[in-house]
Amino acid sequence: MAVELPTVAGSFGETPEITYPSPDAPRGLKVVMLEEGTGTVVHAGDEVEVNYHGQIWDGELFDSSYFRGEPTRFPIGVGMVIKGWDQALVGKQVGSRVMIVVPPEKGYGPAGNPRAGIKGDDVLVFVVDILGVNQTAFSTHSIR
């Protein structure tokens, strides 16, 4: 039986709408390229600028930079964000829209994130638009 993943309405730059196929989440990290960009490739250690929309599987929205009206920036691939993001975004290109289904062990772990309303067994779904990348001294491609 094939794993059914959510569908996403909206294009790059638009606030996504996520529709769930069933109340049962798949196991493991799932990364789906919704729109492939043609810009700079993201490397571990780069600072990425993204817009993102985060929901608990078949549940509540817990965070969205689209609704704040301001993208966010952070180092990627170096443990500064959840493991699911580090693994899913490195190697993607600027201009990409990516859906990431994150199991608890690659998200916030058994403790969850109570401030965001995330329990330790919640599967998270993110839609991420990669807006830009800044190479840093810590980028893996800048080490010779």
TrEMBL record:
InterPro entries xrefs: FKBP2/11, PPIase_dom_sf, PPIase_FKBP_dom
Enzyme Commission designation: 5.2.1.8
Alphabetized SUPFAM superfamilies for the sequence: FKBP-like
Class of enzymatic activity (EC top level): isomerase
GO molecular function per UniProt: isomerase activity
Catalytic activity from the UniProt record: [protein]-peptidylproline (omega=180) = [protein]-peptidylproline (omega=0)
Matches recorded under Pfam families: FKBP_C
Coiled coil: none
Domain PPIase FKBP-type: 45-134
Family statement: Belongs to the FKBP-type PPIase family.
Protein name, as recorded: Peptidyl-prolyl cis-trans isomerase
Organism per entry: Arcanobacterium phocisimile
